[in-house]
Amino acid sequence: MNFEFGDPIFYTWSTTRDRSGIIKQPYPEDSWVPGRDIAFTSGGMWSETAVREGGRLTSETIEHLLALNCVVKTDANVSRDVVEDFAVMLDRMPLLSGQLKSSLDNEFPNVFEFIELPEVWNETTQGPLPGGPYYLTNLLARQDSWDKEKTKFYDFKRGDGSKYTEAAQTQRFISGELVAEFPIWRDKVTSNVICTERFREVAEGAGCREWRFTELPFAKRELH
What we know:
Blueprint: E1 12-14, H1 34-37, E2 39-40, E3 43-44, H2 48-53, H3 59-67, E4 69-72, E5 82-83, E6 95-96, H4 98-107, E7 112-116, E8 120-122, E9 127-128, E10 135-139, E11 142-143, E12 153-157, E13 163-167, E14 184-187, E15 193-195, H5 197-205
Parallel strand pairs: 4-8, 11-14
Antiparallel strand pairs: 1-4, 2-3, 5-6, 6-10, 7-10, 8-9, 12-13, 14-15
């Protein structure tokens, strides 16, 4: 998120129109919980196949999400181009305005899955966030990105036994041989979301000022 522009806001799923209905850990076993049960056609949100292959949200996931309330809390009750950003966690999908969604979908078809939300509820004003409808945006594209020789990786294990990998912030390099198949994609190893300059131009050209883009270094190869 670009914290220098306006008032970035984030959403949460709730059973009520405020945050009192957030399902907190330890998650109940007899309830559907977004932070645990969101699933893609390739697998659950913590599975390695979902990171590597992506996929659309299952129909059951969409049904459960639309039965919940999408809640924000902001004093600046104005329309947004973006609510939330892309994160390494697969369940943290941004919400896009109709204008931004249309621009990206027209320019880059089949890269995203968009789910229209009935409303985004502002807890502060007790009313819908202006500018709706907003679209939950699932990034479908996957690609290998990092130079495996020059990037330093760390492997971790979650409490449930699933594993994940991170690239060191100060020692990560885009492969010098990368040919981007997509304008924006999720890396197959670390789940980081990476985009091309073309994607940035289209997003900002559509009016998006709420994302900050950081240039990544390319690995340099020695000439022989």
